[in-house]
């Protein structure tokens, strides 16, 4: 009988996606062990093409809400088989409850070290301890090591794409006016927090410069009504851009991203999806910093655009970008010029 382990990682999208290189490495090295991955159902696309991986969709807004919902999830997982160990790659209250329930039936667990103290020292206002911390992918891999499964995530990594997604993408592209022999550039201007977003009003002059420099096919990525409305203002001014936001499934977006020549993005989920698709990335950083362990996996300094910490010693002031600017002027983002971004995009496309 094939051994089984449970892997927990519920959100956010980028954090779940960063598990993919580790899960892939696991399936290659341990083909006789099955992973039951508990995450939100919409993130199953990141793992559906890996062998011996079963995704269980957690519905924390519905049937798995609250303590009773977690008990129901626990019972559902138990009905799927017996497990040798539980790997907690999330480390939050929900995962703690599930670990406690599984311990009651004799299933041991290991928990990822998120390095909270190190990250706090890196981002505090005074006496920062500046050093490059382990990447999230490495932290996931360390956790599997502690569980007794040593592995080495692939760098660079590429998401495998499903044939159905390629068919949907071909249908979408057939309805666009795409010039032949032009580089394909993705632009994802948004992030979860304002402290991670380059000013949106600068994207119009940026597009003017980019189109003036060379013929390009530009795809605009985002999600949600407010982001789509902003992107539509760019499309009205530059009708040649292709609006992707709200048009494609996540799986089909991944298929499109894999075909890009480059992705301009923030410190965001789209950055991780592009890097994990083997696409050159140019990521703009503000309040956060790649030293905290969330940089584009498999890419180097050429993928990072930021104001030096020698110039802005307040950086980074946050791990996730969810804290207000201490200075009050967001200089870390506002001081990055359109010309600098345009020049960096050209260098990225020539990689």
Q: In one word, what is the shape?
A: globular
The helical percent reads 25-40%
Distance between the termini: 47 Å
CATH topology of the largest domain: Rossmann fold
- The percentage of residues in β strands lies in 5-15%
The tally of strands reads 11
Overall pLDDT metric? 96
Which class best fits the helix and strand makeup?
A: alpha/beta
Number of helices: 13
Strand order of the largest sheet: 8-7-6-9-10-11
- Uncertain segments are none
According to CATH, the homologous superfamily of the largest domain is Glycogen Phosphorylase B
Q: Biggest β-sheet: count, sense, barrel?
A: 6 strands, parallel
- Oligomeric grouping of the chains: single chain
Features:
13 helices, Rossmann fold, alpha/beta, 13% strand, five-stranded parallel sheet, 2 domains, 351 residues
């Amino acid at each position: 009988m094939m051994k089984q382990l449970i892997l927990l990682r519920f959100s956010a999208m980028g954090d779940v996606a960063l598990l993919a290189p580790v899960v892939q490495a696991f399936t290659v090295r341990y083909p006789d062990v099955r992973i039951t991955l508990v995450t939100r159902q919409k993130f199953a696309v990141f793992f559906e093409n890996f062998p011996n991986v079963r995704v269980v969709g957690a519905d924390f807004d519905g049937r798995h809400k609250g303590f009773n919902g977690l008990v129901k999830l626990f019972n559902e997982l138990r009905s799927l088989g017996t497990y040798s160990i539980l790997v907690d790659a999330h480390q939050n209250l929900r995962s703690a409850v599930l670990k406690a329930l599984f311990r009651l039936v004799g299933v041991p667990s290991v928990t990822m070290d998120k390095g909270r103290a190190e990250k706090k020292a890196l981002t505090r206002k005074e006496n920062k301890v500046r050093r490059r911390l382990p990447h999230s992918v490495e932290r996931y891999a360390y956790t599997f090591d502690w569980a007794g499964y040593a592995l080495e995530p692939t760098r660079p990594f590429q998401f495998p794409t499903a044939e159905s997604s390629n068919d949907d993408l071909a249908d979408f592209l057939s309805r666009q006016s795409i010039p032949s022999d032009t580089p394909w550039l993705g632009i994802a201007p948004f992030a979860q927090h304002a402290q991670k977003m380059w000013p949106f009003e600068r994207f119009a002059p940026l597009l003017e410069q980019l189109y003036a420099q060379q013929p390009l096919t530009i795809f605009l990525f985002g999600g949600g009504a407010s982001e789509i409305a902003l992107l539509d203002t760019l499309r009205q001014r530059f009708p040649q851009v292709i609006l992707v936001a709200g048009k494609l499934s996540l799986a089909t977006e991944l298929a499109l991203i894999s075909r890009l020549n480059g992705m301009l993005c923030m410190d965001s989920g789209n950055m991780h999806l592009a890097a994990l698709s083997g696409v050159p990335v140019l990521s703009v950083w503000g309040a956060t910093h790649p030293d905290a362990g969330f940089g584009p996996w498999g890419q180097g300094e050429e993928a990072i655009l930021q104001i030096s910490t020698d110039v802005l010693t307040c950086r980074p002031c946050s791990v996730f970008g969810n804290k207000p600017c201490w200075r009050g002027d967001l200089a870390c983002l506002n001081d990055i010029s359109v010309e600098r971004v345009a020049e960096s995009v050209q260098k990225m496309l020539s990689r």
